[in-house]
Amino acid sequence: MGWYNWEDYRPRPIRPARGIKAQAQRGKFGKSWWADRWVHALEQLVDPGRLARGRSYARSGQVVKLDAGREGVDALVQGSRRTPYHVRIRFRALSDAEWDRVIDAMAAQALYAAKLLSGEMPAEIEEVFAEAGVPLFPADAHDLETDCSCPDWSNPCKHVAAVHYLLGERFDANPFLIFELRGRDKESIIAALRAHRADGLPPESEAPSQESTPENEPVVPLEELLDSFWTAPTGASDIPISFETPRLGALPIRRLGTPVFWEAERDLLSIMGETYTCIGVYARRVAMGEE
Question: What SS3 class is residue 275?
Fold first, then answer.
Protein backbone atom coordinates (compact mmCIF):
# COMPACT_ATOMS: atom_id res chain seq x y z
CA MET A 1 0.00 0.00 0.00
CA GLY A 2 1.50 3.34 -1.04
CA TRP A 3 1.77 6.54 0.93
CA TYR A 4 -0.66 9.40 0.33
CA ASN A 5 0.02 13.04 0.98
CA TRP A 6 -2.74 14.71 2.99
CA GLU A 7 -2.06 17.92 1.09
CA ASP A 8 -3.56 16.27 -1.98
CA TYR A 9 -6.93 16.02 -0.20
CA ARG A 10 -6.89 19.24 1.80
CA PRO A 11 -9.73 21.55 0.62
CA ARG A 12 -8.29 24.35 -1.46
CA PRO A 13 -9.58 27.92 -1.33
CA ILE A 14 -11.76 29.02 -4.19
CA ARG A 15 -10.01 31.25 -6.70
CA PRO A 16 -11.97 34.50 -6.96
CA ALA A 17 -13.39 35.27 -10.39
CA ARG A 18 -15.08 38.22 -12.01
CA GLY A 19 -17.65 36.28 -13.91
CA ILE A 20 -21.42 36.42 -14.21
CA LYS A 21 -22.94 37.48 -10.91
CA ALA A 22 -26.51 36.55 -10.08
CA GLN A 23 -28.94 39.46 -9.94
CA ALA A 24 -30.42 37.98 -6.76
CA GLN A 25 -27.77 38.50 -4.10
CA ARG A 26 -30.14 37.15 -1.47
CA GLY A 27 -33.42 35.29 -1.44
CA LYS A 28 -34.68 33.28 -4.37
CA PHE A 29 -33.27 33.21 -7.89
CA GLY A 30 -35.50 34.49 -10.67
CA LYS A 31 -38.69 36.50 -10.54
CA SER A 32 -41.04 34.57 -12.83
CA TRP A 33 -42.98 31.38 -12.22
CA TRP A 34 -40.99 29.48 -14.85
CA ALA A 35 -37.73 30.43 -13.11
CA ASP A 36 -39.24 29.14 -9.85
CA ARG A 37 -40.15 25.85 -11.53
CA TRP A 38 -36.67 25.50 -12.97
CA VAL A 39 -35.04 26.04 -9.58
CA HIS A 40 -37.51 23.61 -8.01
CA ALA A 41 -36.50 20.96 -10.54
CA LEU A 42 -32.86 21.50 -9.60
CA GLU A 43 -33.55 21.20 -5.88
CA GLN A 44 -35.03 17.74 -6.44
CA LEU A 45 -31.72 16.52 -7.88
CA VAL A 46 -28.99 18.12 -5.74
CA ASP A 47 -28.29 17.67 -2.03
CA PRO A 48 -28.74 20.78 0.19
CA GLY A 49 -25.02 21.21 0.89
CA ARG A 50 -24.07 21.44 -2.77
CA LEU A 51 -27.07 23.68 -3.43
CA ALA A 52 -25.82 26.15 -0.82
CA ARG A 53 -22.34 26.20 -2.34
CA GLY A 54 -23.83 26.49 -5.82
CA ARG A 55 -25.81 29.56 -4.75
CA SER A 56 -22.65 31.08 -3.31
CA TYR A 57 -20.77 30.43 -6.56
CA ALA A 58 -23.58 31.98 -8.61
CA ARG A 59 -23.71 35.12 -6.47
CA SER A 60 -19.96 35.67 -6.26
CA GLY A 61 -19.34 35.52 -10.02
CA GLN A 62 -17.56 32.15 -10.19
CA VAL A 63 -19.40 31.29 -13.43
CA VAL A 64 -17.18 32.96 -16.02
CA LYS A 65 -19.05 31.80 -19.14
CA LEU A 66 -22.57 30.55 -19.85
CA ASP A 67 -23.95 29.71 -23.29
CA ALA A 68 -27.43 28.25 -23.67
CA GLY A 69 -29.23 27.17 -26.82
CA ARG A 70 -30.79 24.30 -28.69
CA GLU A 71 -27.74 22.10 -28.16
CA GLY A 72 -27.88 22.58 -24.38
CA VAL A 73 -25.85 24.59 -21.89
CA ASP A 74 -22.08 25.00 -21.83
CA ALA A 75 -20.41 26.94 -19.03
CA LEU A 76 -17.07 27.54 -17.33
CA VAL A 77 -16.98 27.75 -13.55
CA GLN A 78 -13.93 28.87 -11.60
CA GLY A 79 -13.19 26.65 -8.63
CA SER A 80 -10.09 26.03 -6.56
CA ARG A 81 -7.88 25.06 -9.48
CA ARG A 82 -6.21 27.44 -11.89
CA THR A 83 -8.28 26.31 -14.88
CA PRO A 84 -12.09 26.72 -14.72
CA TYR A 85 -14.20 23.58 -14.77
CA HIS A 86 -16.28 22.81 -17.83
CA VAL A 87 -19.98 22.28 -17.09
CA ARG A 88 -22.41 20.78 -19.59
CA ILE A 89 -26.17 20.46 -19.22
CA ARG A 90 -28.10 18.57 -21.88
CA PHE A 91 -31.86 18.21 -22.16
CA ARG A 92 -33.78 15.41 -23.75
CA ALA A 93 -35.10 16.98 -26.93
CA LEU A 94 -38.77 16.26 -27.55
CA SER A 95 -39.51 14.18 -30.62
CA ASP A 96 -41.44 15.60 -33.58
CA ALA A 97 -44.49 13.56 -32.52
CA GLU A 98 -44.31 15.00 -29.00
CA TRP A 99 -43.99 18.54 -30.33
CA ASP A 100 -46.94 17.93 -32.65
CA ARG A 101 -49.07 17.00 -29.64
CA VAL A 102 -47.89 20.09 -27.78
CA ILE A 103 -48.63 22.39 -30.74
CA ASP A 104 -52.10 20.85 -31.11
CA ALA A 105 -52.76 21.44 -27.40
CA MET A 106 -51.53 25.03 -27.67
CA ALA A 107 -53.66 25.76 -30.72
CA ALA A 108 -56.74 24.26 -29.02
CA GLN A 109 -56.57 27.01 -26.38
CA ALA A 110 -57.28 30.32 -28.12
CA LEU A 111 -55.89 32.36 -25.23
CA TYR A 112 -52.61 30.45 -25.15
CA ALA A 113 -52.21 30.57 -28.92
CA ALA A 114 -52.88 34.33 -28.98
CA LYS A 115 -50.32 35.02 -26.27
CA LEU A 116 -47.67 32.83 -27.88
CA LEU A 117 -48.27 34.41 -31.29
CA SER A 118 -47.76 37.83 -29.70
CA GLY A 119 -44.48 36.66 -28.16
CA GLU A 120 -45.81 36.27 -24.61
CA MET A 121 -45.45 33.15 -22.44
CA PRO A 122 -48.82 32.03 -20.97
CA ALA A 123 -48.73 31.34 -17.24
CA GLU A 124 -50.45 27.96 -17.64
CA ILE A 125 -48.23 26.69 -20.46
CA GLU A 126 -46.96 23.89 -18.23
CA GLU A 127 -50.51 22.53 -18.06
CA VAL A 128 -50.66 22.46 -21.87
CA PHE A 129 -47.54 20.30 -21.97
CA ALA A 130 -49.00 18.05 -19.28
CA GLU A 131 -52.19 17.59 -21.33
CA ALA A 132 -50.01 16.50 -24.25
CA GLY A 133 -48.31 13.95 -22.00
CA VAL A 134 -44.95 15.76 -22.15
CA PRO A 135 -43.23 17.51 -19.22
CA LEU A 136 -42.03 21.04 -19.95
CA PHE A 137 -39.45 21.03 -17.17
CA PRO A 138 -37.20 18.08 -16.38
CA ALA A 139 -39.27 15.54 -14.48
CA ASP A 140 -36.54 13.00 -13.76
CA ALA A 141 -32.91 12.17 -14.47
CA HIS A 142 -33.81 10.91 -17.97
CA ASP A 143 -34.83 14.43 -19.03
CA LEU A 144 -31.61 16.09 -17.88
CA GLU A 145 -27.96 15.11 -18.30
CA THR A 146 -25.30 17.05 -16.42
CA ASP A 147 -21.52 16.77 -16.49
CA CYS A 148 -18.63 18.66 -14.89
CA SER A 149 -14.89 18.25 -15.32
CA CYS A 150 -14.29 18.70 -11.56
CA PRO A 151 -13.17 15.71 -9.43
CA ASP A 152 -16.32 15.77 -7.28
CA TRP A 153 -17.90 12.30 -7.24
CA SER A 154 -21.41 13.74 -6.97
CA ASN A 155 -23.32 14.68 -10.09
CA PRO A 156 -24.83 17.29 -10.15
CA CYS A 157 -22.03 19.04 -8.23
CA LYS A 158 -21.88 22.59 -6.85
CA HIS A 159 -20.51 23.88 -10.17
CA VAL A 160 -23.51 22.47 -12.04
CA ALA A 161 -25.81 23.94 -9.37
CA ALA A 162 -24.27 27.40 -9.85
CA VAL A 163 -24.93 27.27 -13.60
CA HIS A 164 -28.45 25.96 -12.98
CA TYR A 165 -29.28 28.93 -10.74
CA LEU A 166 -27.97 31.47 -13.23
CA LEU A 167 -29.92 29.74 -15.99
CA GLY A 168 -33.07 30.40 -13.97
CA GLU A 169 -32.37 34.11 -14.28
CA ARG A 170 -31.86 33.68 -18.02
CA PHE A 171 -35.40 32.31 -18.16
CA ASP A 172 -36.64 35.58 -16.66
CA ALA A 173 -35.18 37.49 -19.61
CA ASN A 174 -36.16 34.88 -22.22
CA PRO A 175 -38.92 32.45 -21.13
CA PHE A 176 -38.84 30.79 -24.56
CA LEU A 177 -35.36 29.51 -23.78
CA ILE A 178 -36.90 26.46 -22.08
CA PHE A 179 -38.60 25.61 -25.41
CA GLU A 180 -35.29 25.95 -27.24
CA LEU A 181 -33.55 23.66 -24.76
CA ARG A 182 -36.29 21.13 -25.48
CA GLY A 183 -35.60 21.28 -29.22
CA ARG A 184 -37.77 24.05 -30.70
CA ASP A 185 -37.08 27.77 -30.76
CA LYS A 186 -39.66 30.53 -30.44
CA GLU A 187 -39.80 31.25 -34.18
CA SER A 188 -40.51 27.62 -35.16
CA ILE A 189 -43.27 27.29 -32.56
CA ILE A 190 -44.96 30.51 -33.68
CA ALA A 191 -44.70 29.38 -37.32
CA ALA A 192 -46.31 26.04 -36.41
CA LEU A 193 -49.14 27.80 -34.58
CA ARG A 194 -49.78 30.10 -37.55
CA ALA A 195 -49.83 27.11 -39.89
CA HIS A 196 -52.25 25.38 -37.54
CA ARG A 197 -54.56 28.40 -37.66
CA ALA A 198 -54.33 28.56 -41.45
CA ASP A 199 -55.27 24.88 -41.71
CA GLY A 200 -58.41 25.61 -39.73
CA LEU A 201 -59.67 28.21 -42.22
CA PRO A 202 -62.25 27.05 -44.83
CA PRO A 203 -60.92 26.71 -48.38
CA GLU A 204 -61.84 29.41 -50.87
CA SER A 205 -64.31 27.08 -52.58
CA GLU A 206 -66.30 26.94 -49.35
CA ALA A 207 -66.27 30.68 -48.74
CA PRO A 208 -69.73 32.35 -48.75
CA SER A 209 -70.81 33.51 -52.17
CA GLN A 210 -71.26 37.20 -52.81
CA GLU A 211 -74.98 36.70 -53.46
CA SER A 212 -75.56 35.52 -49.88
CA THR A 213 -73.56 38.21 -48.09
CA PRO A 214 -75.51 40.52 -45.78
CA GLU A 215 -74.27 43.56 -47.70
CA ASN A 216 -76.53 42.61 -50.65
CA GLU A 217 -79.66 42.05 -48.59
CA PRO A 218 -82.27 44.83 -48.66
CA VAL A 219 -82.00 47.31 -45.78
CA VAL A 220 -85.29 47.82 -43.94
CA PRO A 221 -85.70 51.23 -42.29
CA LEU A 222 -85.59 51.07 -38.48
CA GLU A 223 -88.96 52.82 -38.06
CA GLU A 224 -90.61 49.89 -39.86
CA LEU A 225 -89.13 47.40 -37.35
CA LEU A 226 -90.07 49.07 -34.07
CA ASP A 227 -92.77 46.49 -33.23
CA SER A 228 -90.40 43.54 -33.64
CA PHE A 229 -87.04 45.13 -32.85
CA TRP A 230 -86.66 43.39 -29.49
CA THR A 231 -88.09 40.06 -30.67
CA ALA A 232 -85.65 37.27 -31.38
CA PRO A 233 -85.95 35.71 -34.85
CA THR A 234 -87.49 32.28 -35.22
CA GLY A 235 -85.14 29.55 -33.96
CA ALA A 236 -82.85 31.91 -32.09
CA SER A 237 -83.98 30.53 -28.73
CA ASP A 238 -82.75 27.09 -29.78
CA ILE A 239 -79.15 28.29 -30.10
CA PRO A 240 -77.16 26.80 -27.19
CA ILE A 241 -75.43 29.40 -25.02
CA SER A 242 -72.93 28.48 -22.33
CA PHE A 243 -70.56 30.38 -20.09
CA GLU A 244 -67.21 29.04 -19.00
CA THR A 245 -65.22 30.30 -16.06
CA PRO A 246 -62.18 32.06 -17.51
CA ARG A 247 -58.88 30.35 -16.73
CA LEU A 248 -57.08 33.44 -15.47
CA GLY A 249 -54.80 31.63 -13.05
CA ALA A 250 -53.54 34.91 -11.55
CA LEU A 251 -51.66 35.58 -14.78
CA PRO A 252 -50.45 39.12 -13.83
CA ILE A 253 -49.20 37.92 -10.45
CA ARG A 254 -47.49 34.87 -11.92
CA ARG A 255 -45.69 37.00 -14.49
CA LEU A 256 -44.45 39.43 -11.83
CA GLY A 257 -43.56 36.71 -9.34
CA THR A 258 -43.78 36.78 -5.55
CA PRO A 259 -42.80 40.25 -4.24
CA VAL A 260 -39.77 40.51 -1.99
CA PHE A 261 -41.85 41.90 0.88
CA TRP A 262 -44.13 38.83 1.06
CA GLU A 263 -43.52 37.12 4.41
CA ALA A 264 -46.73 35.16 5.04
CA GLU A 265 -46.46 31.39 5.40
CA ARG A 266 -48.92 30.75 2.60
CA ASP A 267 -47.76 31.23 -0.98
CA LEU A 268 -49.04 34.44 -2.61
CA LEU A 269 -49.57 32.78 -5.99
CA SER A 270 -51.86 30.18 -4.43
CA ILE A 271 -53.93 32.88 -2.70
CA MET A 272 -54.24 34.98 -5.85
CA GLY A 273 -55.03 31.92 -7.94
CA GLU A 274 -58.00 31.11 -5.71
CA THR A 275 -59.07 34.77 -5.78
CA TYR A 276 -59.05 34.90 -9.57
CA THR A 277 -61.04 31.65 -9.68
CA CYS A 278 -63.68 33.14 -7.37
CA ILE A 279 -63.86 36.23 -9.58
CA GLY A 280 -64.42 34.02 -12.63
CA VAL A 281 -67.17 32.01 -10.89
CA TYR A 282 -68.92 35.20 -9.77
CA ALA A 283 -68.70 36.68 -13.29
CA ARG A 284 -70.29 33.53 -14.67
CA ARG A 285 -73.15 33.68 -12.17
CA VAL A 286 -73.76 37.33 -13.03
CA ALA A 287 -73.79 36.52 -16.75
CA MET A 288 -76.31 33.72 -16.14
CA GLY A 289 -78.53 36.05 -14.09
CA GLU A 290 -77.94 34.13 -10.86
CA GLU A 291 -76.71 37.20 -9.00
Answer: helix
